[in-house]
Amino acid sequence: MRLSPPAALRALALLAAGTLALAGCAGQPGSQDGDAVATAAPTSTLTISAAASLQRSFDEIAKEFTAAHPETAISTIAYDGSSTLATQIVEGAPVDVIASADEKNMAVVTDAGLGGDPVIFATNTLVIAVPKGNPGKVKSLADLAGATTVLCAPQVPCGSASATLLQNQGVEVKAASQEQNVTAVLQKVIAGEADAGLVYATDVAGEDAVESIVPAGAEQVVNSYPITALGEQPGAQDFVDFVLGLEGQQILKDHGFGSASAGADG
């Protein structure tokens, strides 16, 4: 059957439109079977070791970092005392970034030929933590001598800082226990197993189960936190740069850490 000229023109127009539509579908990458374009999978995975006192801040930093760097995944952040982390790394633990709570334990790593030049990214000071209600009636460092007091072990940054603070103030304390990281000290105070413990100011921030007392001389004993990338794993230096950048520094500040210029290691 022959079409009239107007009908023939309409048929040609419909055929052309159909051809263009098919061509458009064929040109859409990832549109086969109606699937959306897939998000690229991470091409690098990081393992990070960080001082126990960094846990809340680094958990948040890791979340924001991976959102800004989808090409890099963080498989593990191991939180512990800096001395423990340094020993693990020197003994061969596969770690891409280390963030220590002091320069002494970072030196253990770098003196072994691992990592680049560490950069100070935060500072911290000590407070006396007591259970809610302060049942031991602790008011000062001097009161720790007669109270059940928990401290960090001497080789741990918070333990070294505690020893310096107590010595500076002429106070001698026989600790009920010496813990391998500051989190363990805080947990014993929260559990009521101790009248008091010396922890970092950041550890008690937002912790409703304890009260804190800023002891005399605390501002003179400042822990400096260094960070460095270990090896050449893609994304490791990006993480270090993120911690040192504006967003990372703001997160650390929000969690109570001082700036890198606030003082030297105590």
TrEMBL record:
This is Molybdate ABC transporter substrate-binding protein. The keyword Metal-binding applies. InterPro entries: ModA, ModA/WtpA. The lineage of its organism: Bacteria, Bacillati, Actinomycetota, Actinomycetes, Micrococcales. The gene is modA. GO terms for biological process: molybdate ion transport. Belongs to the bacterial solute-binding protein ModA family. GO terms for molecular function: metal ion binding; molybdate ion binding. It holds the Pfam family SBP_bac_11. Keywords: Metal-binding, Molybdenum, Signal. PROSITE patterns: PROKAR_LIPOPROTEIN. Molybdate binds at S53, S82, V182, Y200. Gene3D superfamilies: Periplasmic binding protein-like II (3.40.190.10). Residues 1-23 form the signal peptide.
